[in-house]
Design brief:
single chain, alpha+beta, Ribosomal Protein S5, domain 2, five-stranded mixed sheet, 5 strands, about 20% strand
């Protein structure tokens, strides 16, 4: 199997995922998964597509991720992994990933700050006198 490339996005984070057959090594920005995401919950989010498709330990991952925070980066990586698995074997993996909701790009973005007010929707306190 050759290398499969996929892109995942979430909020301001962009993850480029390179999937190859292997032993389950995950490298993110030239660092192991345990060092890049010290929290168990974020490591769980990254490994969810492998658990849903029962392919844990079958693929090696090389990920380049930039932008956003750690939660957005983890979810961007999850989307990229899901898309890469679909490219490997669409008939086997796509139904399970689709049912789990891992193939849907979350469209929610931060609303921009408007001029003349402190935030996107927040207004300065109104003074009658």
């Amino acid at each position: 199997m050759e290398q499969t490339h996929a892109l995942g996005r979430r909020k301001a984070a962009v993850a480029r995922v390179y999937l190859t057959a292997g032993k389950g090594n995950i490298t993110i920005n030239d660092r192991p998964l345990e060092n890049y995401f010290p929290a168990d919950t974020l490591r769980y989010v990254v490994n969810q597509p492998f658990e849903v498709t029962n392919t844990a330990g079958q693929f090696d991952l090389k990920v380049t991720v930039c932008g956003g925070g750690i939660k957005g980066q983890a979810e961007a990586i999850r989307l990229g992994i899901s898309r890469a698995l679909c490219e490997v074997d669409k008939e086997a993996y796509r139904p399970a990933l689709k049912a789990a909701g891992f193939l849907t790009r979350d469209p929610r973005e931060v609303e921009r700050k408007k001029p003349g007010q402190p935030g996107a929707r927040r207004r300065f306190q109104f003074s009658k006198r």
